[in-house]
Amino acid sequence: MTLPAASLAVLSVASEIYPLIKTGGLADVAGALPAALAAEGIAVRTLVPGYPAVLDGAESEGEVVHRFDSLFGGPARLVAARAAGLDLVVLDAPHLFARAGNPYTGPDGRDWQDNPFRFAALARAAAEIGLGATALPPPAVVHAHDWQAGLTPAYLAYAGVPRPKTVMTVHNLAFQGQFDASLLGPLGLPPQAFAVDGVEYYGAIGFLKAGLQLADAITTVSPTYAQEIRGPEAGMGLDGLLRVRSGVLHGIVNGIDTEVWDPATDPHLPKAFSAKSPKGRAAAKAALQDRFGLARDPDALVYGVVSRLSWQKGLDLLLEALPTLLSTGAQLAVLGTGEPALEHGFRSAAAAHPGRIGCHIGYDEATAHLIQGGAEALIVPSRFEPCGLTQLCALRYGALPVVSSVGGLADTVIDANEMAVAAGVGTGVRFQPTTVFALEGALARTAALFADKPVWQRLRKNAMATDVSWTHPARRYAALYRDLAGAAA
Fold first, then answer.
1. What is the percent of the chain with per-residue pLDDT over 90, rounded to a whole number?
2. Strand-pair category, 8-13 with 141-145
3. Which residues bind ADP-alpha-D-glucose per the record (predicted)?
4. Which neighbouring-strand residues pair with 82?
5. 404-437: buried (b, 16+ CB within 10 Å) or exposed (e) per residue?
C-alpha cells in the first residue's frame, strides 16, 4: 500500500477517528486533518485501535505489515488499510479491542480495567512504526493525540536509538490517563522513566504527562486555551510543566470538515441554503420545531444546544437561566447526553414548558445538523473549552453562537457588542465570567439583536462568511512538522 507523493510523512496516533468511531471532537480532528494536510504536501497515516467498527469499516482486508507474538496479553498485528478515504494502520488485537460500544467504557459505564494496557499497546505499536521495525517506511514525525496516545513519545524517547520527532496534542487537559505506579514494569517502561522528568506524576504513571514531558513539541487546539492551561485554574495540575515547556507549546485552532458540514449540500436538511441564498433556512427551522415538539412559529428566537450535558459545558448554568430565556419569548432545543442530574433537569424543563423547550437525550448526526441549520442561535456556556467544534458548525450554518469567553470559543467568535455591530464585524455573542448572571445578560442581549432584523441578518452573513475550514490550521501543522523534521518549507 502506498501513500500519495508528499514531501513529509507523518504518523498520527488516535484512539478514535470519524466516521469510523467517535465519542467527541478528537475523532472529528483525526478524521478531517489528514485531507487538509495532503494539500500542504504532508502524507498522513493514522494508527487506530482495531475496534469492531474500525475493522468493519475497512474497504478491504488490508496488508499485514507487522505481527506481535504477544502484546500485553495476546498476539496482535498491524494492518495497513483504507477506510472512508483515510490511510490507516489498524492495531488488530482482539484481546484488547474486540469489544462493541464505547471504546473506553464497558456496559456498566465504568472504564475498562485494562485501559492502561489497551492504550499502552497503541503507543507501543506507534513506536514500532516510528523506529522502522515494521514493513512500513518510518515517518519523519509521529503525532500523538490525547492521553490514550500519551506513552508514544515515552516509548520512543526510551528506545535508545535514533527516532522520529514527536508532537503531543492536548484536546482536553481534564482527561489525563493516570494509573498505578506498579504498572511501570508491566507496561514495558524502564525504571528511570519513573521520575519527574519522565512518566511519574504525583506518585502515579501519567500517560498525558509523559507525552507533555517527552514530546519534541506540544500543541493544543486554540491559542487562548494554550495560554489558559499555563495557569493553575485551567492547568489541571500540569500548569507548572506547561510553563516550563511553554517554548514548544503551540495553540492551533481546530477546523471542521466543510464538506460534511455544508448547508448547501447537507442531506440532513429539508432544503439547501447558503449565505447568498438563505431562504432554505426557514424550512430547517420549521423541521427543527416539529422534531422537538416546539410551537410552529417562524418568528421565534430558537436556541439550540448540541453538547455533552456536563459541568464543564456549563449546562447547569443554562438550566438556571431558563426563566430569562423564556421571558424573551424564545424556544430551546437540546440534544445531548451526560450527567444524570442534567439529563433530568432538561427533561423536566421540557415537560414543564411544552412547545417552548424540547429535549432529546442521546446523540445522532442528523439531528445535530438540523439544529445547526434550523436554530437562530446556539448556546455554548462552557466553563472551559479547549476549542469546541459545535460553534464552528454554527457559524457555518448561520446559527449565531452565544458562548462563554474561554478557550477556543473566545478565539473563534467575534462578540457583537455595540462597536462591532457599528463596524459590521460581529459573528455571535460572548459573555464573561462564566456565571448565571453573565449568561442571562447574554441571552437578553441576543434577544435584542434578534429583534433588529437588519442587524441579525448582517451578523448571520458575517458568521457564514467565517473561514472555519482546516486550511489555515493545516498550514500551521505542516510548518510545525517541517520545522521539527528539518525539512525545507
1. 95
2. parallel
3. 22
4. 87
5. bbbbbbbbbbbbbeeeebeeeebbbbbbeebbbe
Query: Do residues 487 and 9 touch, judged by C-beta distance below 8 A?
Result: no
DSSP letters along 346-357, please?
HHHHHHHSTBTE
- In sequence order, what are the residues at sequence separation of 6 or more whose Cβ sits closer than 8 angstroms to the Cβ of residue 46? 11, 12, 13, 14, 17, 30, 34, 86, 87, 88, 89
Alpha carbon of 92 to those of 56, 75, 81, 316: distances in Å?
Answer: 12, 9, 11, 41
Cis ω before 138 (30° cut-off from 0) = no
CATH class label, 278-465: alpha beta
Q: Torsion angle, CA of 124/126/130/132, rounded to 10 degrees?
A: 70
Distance CA 431, CA 42 (A): 38
Contact 17, 27 (CB under 8 A): yes
> What cell was used for 237?
495540575
For residue 355, with 0-12 CB atoms within 10 Å meaning exposed, 13-18 middle and 19 or more buried, which class applies? middle
**Mean per-residue pLDDT, 59-65:** 90
Domain 8-255+471-485, CATH class in plain words: alpha beta
pLDDT tens sequence across 214-223:
999 999 999 9
Name the phi and psi angles at 45, rounded to 5. Answer: -105, 145
| 276 annotated among ligand-binding-site residues | no
- The DSSP bridge partners found for residue 204 are 201
Query: Would you list the domain boundaries of the chain?
Result: 8-255+471-485, 278-465
Alpha-carbon gap, residue 53 to 20, rounded angstroms: 6
Dist CA 416 CA 428 (whole Å): 6
Structure confidence at residue 488 (pLDDT): 46
Q: Helix, strand, or coil here: 284?
A: helix
DSSP state at residue 428? B
Phi and psi based region of residue 49 (left: phi greater than 0; alpha: psi -120 to 50; beta: remaining): beta
The reply to whether 8-255+471-485 and 278-465 are identical in fold is yes
Q: Rank 61-65, 257-261, 317-321 by mean pLDDT and report only the highest.
A: 317-321
> What one-character DSSP code corresponds to residue 59?
S
- Spatial neighbors of 423 by CB under 8 A, at least 6 apart, are none
